[in-house]
Amino acid sequence: MKLMSVKIGDFTAENNVFLAPLAGYTNYAFRRLCKGYGAGLCYTEMVSAKGLKYGSENTEELLYTDEYEGVAAAQIFGSDPDIMRAACENEKLAPFPIVDINMGCPVPKIYKNGEGSALLENPALAEKIVKECVKSGKIVTVKFRIGVRENEYITKEFAKRMEGAGASLLTVHGRTRDKMYAGEVHFEEIAAAKNAVDIPVIANGGVFSDADAENLLKKTGADGVMVARAALFDPQIFCELTGKERESKLATFEKQLKWTGQVCDERFTTVFMRKMAAFYVKGERGAAAFKERLFQAASPSEVLAIAKEIWK
Ligand SMILES: Cc1cc2nc3c(=O)[nH]c(=O)nc-3n(C[C@H](O)[C@H](O)[C@H](O)COP(=O)(O)O)c2cc1C
């Protein structure tokens, strides 16, 4: 695909291929890996603004970053404008110059709380949240879906309101809440957002190859693409999309295991890397037997030893 830098407020992302926020996955190690493989900007998984306020234990791990990772964007969710602003001002977010507001999460618990995709139905509140967050001095971006229900798309109006409220970039996931992660991506809705605003628009949904990325850009006119699920199966998809040379699967796995272990305890690292290995092995011969063995591994070194056997 055609690479271009993207201006987000006063920050410039080197290229227009971004790693999406993925709850449970886009931790420090995962982001560092994808950045190394060429991603122009990587997002943390969504972090609760209330959790930050009340000092929830896991926010520390979710927001760990360092100079090896470079600049990343932190994504927060919530519905109270004051709490959202306080989150932006929280010292744990200090290393992140860009804060993305989640307006797309379809999970019932979040939606029923008036957070995530529920904000699509309350644009006045969404606008207020962005305005408050902007006051923190952070570069504020918004990731949203094209609506809650099929054929009731809010994309164009919503995009305009978010830009008016002070957002510096919009990411549009071209599906409604009802469709979760399935179904076709509505290119025309993403295009409508792009045509309605002057800030950059990143298109999201269904990119699993360079051809998908090119098609998405061509059909939407967007400024870039955001990749989510494809990166779980293959973080080196960013090499494919940015023209970098690939390395072995084992090299990816070893790095991810090492960096995860730098931030997380052994128990988490074991369970997380077992899960990652199960993603990486999908479609390979002997995958089922590999997964069975893997899920008995009791430590990061055991997980690595099994991975070395399969990917030697
Ligand atoms: C396991 C999982 C976790 C996700 N977590 C988040 C999240 O924390 N914040 C967010 O905005 N979107 C989240 N998403 C949505 C993705 O960022 C993305 O919008 C969606 O998967 C569509 O992109 P894709 O077709 O490339 O997967 C998540 C999706 C999945 C599958």
Task: Report on the architecture of this protein.
α1 runs antiparallel to α12 (249-263), α4 (81-89) packs parallel to α6 and α6 (123-135) runs parallel beside α7. The protein has 312 residues and is α/β, with parallel strands linked by helices. It starts with 5 loop residues before the first strand and ends with a helix. The protein has two domains: 6-242, TIM Barrel (Alpha-Beta Barrel); 249-310, no CATH class. Helices cover 44% and strands 15% of the residues. The strands form two sheets. It has an eight-stranded parallel β-barrel, surrounded by six helices. Strands 1-2 form a two-stranded antiparallel ribbon. β8, α8 and β9 form a beta-alpha-beta unit. The longest helix has 15 residues, at 249-263. It has 15 helices and ten strands. Flavin mononucleotide binds next to β4 and α10.
The count of helical stretches stands at: 15
CATH topology annotation of the largest domain: TIM Barrel
Which architecture name of the largest domain does CATH use? Alpha-Beta Barrel
What is the total number of structural domains?
2
